[in-house]
């Protein structure tokens, strides 16, 4: 008889789930029994056999001497001295509001002035200090003394940039001395004019190739010759960009003889 593996996954449907299973027997833990006597009196408890014993018992309290209904409380409340009671007076109020006007009171009406506002306005305008006229015309920058001249701060900025470039070139040359001393005849420094000319020529070539590449990529289907041409243009652009990055480095460019 071969044994079958019963799947244990609860989400897996199987015919073995229809077989009734035996429920495990629940074994209860033994009941806890205190080691102390439950019939013994609780020490320091407020509920004892003689009644509650919260606090100390007072023996001087008379339970019959409480204030009863309709009884005279003279032995509790002392009468006040009438001379100490101040009579109430309405004039003692603070922050009284203004009284309401009487019906016979009439407001002052028909107030007139003899001031001539036209004459007063004219005198005020005559005595006023005139303000400077505001010109709507824009300033003529061509008539300025420094028109067409290079600002002084630009010369200072150019001098700082030149000094920084010279310092970087000297540093690069000092770092390259160890390599050029070993093989002085293998590498020479490229002239600056030739370097600028090569960069300009590479930029023009990159623009021409990129123009052809942009015309080609307008097509959505790249099959056959179009696919090869697209890959060729991308390779040329990458090569030109790599050459430009080598020529545009900071410092002198060393080339082999």
Summing up helix and strand content along with how strands pair, one would put the structural category as mainly alpha
Helical proportion, percent range: 25-40%
Could you list the spans in which at least 5 consecutive residues all have pLDDT below 50? none
Alpha plus pi helix count: 4
Please give the alpha-carbon distance between the first and last residues: 90 Å
Biggest sheet descriptor: 2 strands, antiparallel
Beta-sheet strand percentage? under 5%
Strand order of the largest sheet: 1-2
Q: Report the average pLDDT across residues.
A: 78
Describe this structure in words.
The chain is mostly helical and 257 residues long. The protein is built from 4 helices and 4 strands; from the N terminus they run ββααβααβ. A hairpin with a 2-residue loop joins strand 1 and strand 2. Helix 3 packs antiparallel against helix 4. The two termini are 90 Å apart. The model has no long low-confidence stretch (mean pLDDT 78).
What secondary-structure arrangement, pairings included, does this model have?
Elements: E1 47-48, E2 51-52, H1 117-127, H2 152-182, E3 187-189, H3 192-216, H4 225-247, E4 254-256
Antiparallel strand pairs: 1-2, 3-4
Helix pairs in contact: 3-4
Question: Keyphrases for this structure?
Answer:
flat; single chain; 4 helices; two-stranded antiparallel sheet; 4 strands; 35% helix; 257 residues; mainly alpha
Short description:
By secondary structure, this protein is mainly alpha-helical. The chain has helices at residues 117-127, 152-182, 192-216, 225-247, and strands spanning 47-48, 51-52, 187-189, 254-256.
């Amino acid at each position: 008889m071969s044994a079958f593996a019963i799947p244990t996954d609860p989400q897996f449907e199987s015919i073995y789930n229809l077989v009734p299973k035996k429920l495990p027997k629940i074994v209860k833990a033994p009941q806890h029994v205190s080691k102390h006597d439950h019939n013994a009196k609780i020490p320091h408890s407020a509920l004892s056999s003689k009644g509650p014993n919260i606090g100390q018992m007072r023996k001087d309290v008379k339970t019959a001497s409480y204030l009863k209904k309709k009884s005279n409380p003279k032995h509790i409340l002392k009468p006040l001295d009438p001379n100490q009671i101040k009579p109430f007076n309405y004039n003692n109020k603070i922050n009284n509001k203004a009284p309401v006007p009487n019906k016979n009171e009439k407001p002052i009406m028909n107030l007139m002035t003899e001031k001539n506002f036209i004459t007063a306005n004219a005198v005020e305008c005559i005595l006023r200090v005139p303000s400077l006229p505001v010109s709507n015309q824009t300033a003529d920058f061509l008539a300025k003394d420094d028109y067409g001249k290079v600002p002084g701060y630009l010369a200072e900025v150019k001098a700082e940039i030149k000094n920084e470039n010279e310092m970087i070139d000297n540093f690069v040359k000092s770092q390259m001395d160890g390599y050029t001393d070993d093989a002085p005849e293998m590498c020479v420094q490229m002239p600056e004019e030739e370097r600028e000319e090569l960069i300009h020529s590479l930029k023009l070539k990159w623009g021409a190739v990129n123009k052809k590449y942009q015309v080609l990529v307008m097509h959505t289907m790249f099959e056959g010759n179009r696919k090869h041409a697209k890959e060729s243009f991308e390779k040329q652009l990458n090569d030109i960009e790599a050459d430009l990055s080598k020529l545009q480095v900071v410092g002198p460019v060393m080339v082999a003889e």
